[in-house]
Amino acid sequence: MERDEFLSKLGIGVLALCTGCMASCGGKSSDPSPSGGGGGTPAPPSGSGTVFTADLNSEIKTIGASKSSNGVILVRIGADNVATSFTAVQIACTHEGTNINYSASDGKFICPLHGSQFSQAGAVLNGPAVVALKKYTVTISGTTLSVVA
Ligand code: FES
Fold this sequence. Notes:
Elements: H1 3-29, E1 50-55, E2 66-69, E3 72-76, E4 86-90, E5 101-103, E6 108-110, E7 117-118, E8 124-126, E9 135-141, E10 144-148
Antiparallel strand pairs: 1-10, 2-3, 3-4, 4-9, 5-6, 6-7, 7-8, 9-10
Bound molecules: FE2/S2 (inorganic) cluster.
């Protein structure tokens, strides 16, 4: 094999390898979504009916304790086992969809990505988010708490 022929074949091989790599890697490097959710704000759970339940004998027994499921975060904000001792809101931040956390010491929800803050009722306290969190109804029957859409 001549030197020119060898280099020519080598070039074609490298080009084919790079093309394959770029095709398989290109999607991730161009994804602007910080949460990996495909961009945009995911819709909060909708529809009607029970989103999830909690057993008050064994779950979320202390103020500030939380449980999340099916896109909703439930937090105990009062001591008594009555509906007003709890708040339930969509867990996805309305800015770009990152899951929010509840800060018991601050008494509000805080997004860890860009710092938006929401009241216990889901209202925007600080941006960049401008849309309130969807709030869910809490009902209690016996020791079973239900989060209802
Ligand atoms: S995703 Fe930006 S503040 Fe929550």
